[in-house]
């Protein structure tokens, strides 16, 4: 069974098609990257998948069940999300925010966090290197620190399927790779939009290439991240080589004449 299946999905705003006939699948324990230029529809597609936007037509299936027919709490048990938008009206302690990931596992709305909940949350903070920040106020943190706290919340939710929208945004280079290492080692299914093509090459099992609201190619990194395809889609000069240290594709850019 596929963790995610998107079938004939269309999404329109004011009679303008943003997504056109999207079909894709993500298998169990796959790490699948979504790439494409700005305006390709990556965030819009992810918002349809994590149920913030509703498709104009087509269907989305989560572990075999149609997403539109699942209660929100059941969705939260199956899928955790790290979006680009995380505006909060009220300041909270870092540990309180991470504990929100346990909501799907609560049996009552006002249930207090258990010792197990707190242990899971603290373990997640430790994974992202922020266990000493548990009592800090979220608003006092830098953009990168906030991103790592929200990743800890995703891990605390303990879902087998994680959806992320450019999770390495706001992060220093070290933490970009640390984030991807954490996700890769979690033994879960990951579907993520990725801005940095070299990170996509390093960590993805498969890559989906999106352009103008359409899936134009799907395949392994070495099949998608070719000089011809990247140059055509991103309108830059490209040189692609195998990195001698990692054995993965390394992309180099230069102005296109």
TrEMBL record:
Coiled coil: none
InterPro entries per UniProt: AAA+_ATPase (IPR003593), ABC_transporter-like_ATP-bd (IPR003439), ABC_transporter-like_CS (IPR017871), P-loop_NTPase (IPR027417)
Source domain of life: Bacteria
Domain ABC transporter: from-to ranges: 4-237
Class in the EC hierarchy, top level: hydrolase
One GO molecular-function entry: ATP binding
Entries under PANTHER family matching the protein: ABC TRANSPORTER ATP-BINDING PROTEIN, HEMIN IMPORT ATP-BINDING PROTEIN HMUV
Protein's UniProt name: Hemin import ATP-binding protein HmuV
UniProt source species: Urinicoccus massiliensis
Underlying gene: hmuV
């Amino acid at each position: 069974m596929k963790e995610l299946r998107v079938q004939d999905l269309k999404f329109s705003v004011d009679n303008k098609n943003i997504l056109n006939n999207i079909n894709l699948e993500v298998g169990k324990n796959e790490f699948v990257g979504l790439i494409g230029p700005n305006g390709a529809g990556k965030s819009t597609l992810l918002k349809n998948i994590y149920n913030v936007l509703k498709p104009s037509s087509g269907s989305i299936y989560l572990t075999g069940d149609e997403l539109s027919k699942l209660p929100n709490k059941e969705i939260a048990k199956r899928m955790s999300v790290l979006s680009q938008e995380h505006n909060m009206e009220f300041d909270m302690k870092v540990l309180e925010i991470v504990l929100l990931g346990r909501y799907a596992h609560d049996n009552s709305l006002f249930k207090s966090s258990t010792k197990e909940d707190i242990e899971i949350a603290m373990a997640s903070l430790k994974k992202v290197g922020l266990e000493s920040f548990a009592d800090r106020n979220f608003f006092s943190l830098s953009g990168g620190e906030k991103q790592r706290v929200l990743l800890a919340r995703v891990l605390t939710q303990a879902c087998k399927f994680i959806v992320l929208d450019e999770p390495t945004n706001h992060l220093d280079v070290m933490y970009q790779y640390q984030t991807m290492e954490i996700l890769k080692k979690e033994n879960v299914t990951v579907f993520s939009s990725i801005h940095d093509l070299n990170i996509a090459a390093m960590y993805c099992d498969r890559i989906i290439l999106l352009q103008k609201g359409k899936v134009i190619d799907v395949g392994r990194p070495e099949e998608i991240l070719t000089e011809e395809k990247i140059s055509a889609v991103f309108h830059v000069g490209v040189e692609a080589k195998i990195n001698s240290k990692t054995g993965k594709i390394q992309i180099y850019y230069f102005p296109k004449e």
